[in-house]
Amino acid sequence: MAYTPAQRKEHIREIQHYLHAISYYDTQIPRIIPDGIYGKETAAAVRAFQRRYGLPETGSTDMRTWDKIVSVYNSFVNNDPVAYNIFPSPTFVLGEGDSGLLVYILQAMLDDIGMSYDNMHRVTVDGRYGRETSDAVMRFQRSVNLPQTGRVDAPTWNILAKTSEHINRAGE
């Protein structure tokens, strides 16, 4: 069966996807947009990849280059999860009336802690920072000897995150 232009375009797009993903981990690889066209940008990204990973700098994707790109991609993607720094800043404070993703994460940590420790209570995870969340934060703050404000500042967040991480690692 002959290698069709559509198959060639799909293989080019595949290598471009790998290179695109690698560029987020390795800034020496130019970021390209996968379009299925092996143009100047793709050749430059392949050449940069070859230079970075000790391959002959041809700008062409031979089998050795293909295998190395796939290997590097897999090593990044299948590595330990990347920690996501979500707390906005050292001076930020989360409190009653707030809502959204950060509140969901806070409530999930508090609920985890509530399931694991008898002196803590579980909370509803709904993304809205109300009285129940505030009370749970105060209980947590009291248990770790922080000022009992019911609001989450960086010190409260840091200890919450470490406590939740410890709980989750213990369950592995």
Question: Uncertain regions: pLDDT < 50 for 5+ in a row?
Answer: none
Helix content range? 55-70%
> What is the strand tally?
0
The assembly state of the depicted protein chains is single chain
Describe the overall structure.
The protein has helices at 5-25, 40-52, 63-77, 101-116, 131-143, 154-170. With 172 residues, the protein is mainly α. Helix 1 crosses helix 3 and helix 4 (101-116) packs across helix 6. Helix content is 55%, strand content 0%.
Describe the protein's topology.
Layout: H1 5-25, H2 40-52, H3 63-77, H4 101-116, H5 131-143, H6 154-170
Compact description:
By secondary structure, the chain is mainly α. The protein contains 6 helices and no strands.
Defining traits:
mainly alpha; 6 helices; 55% helix
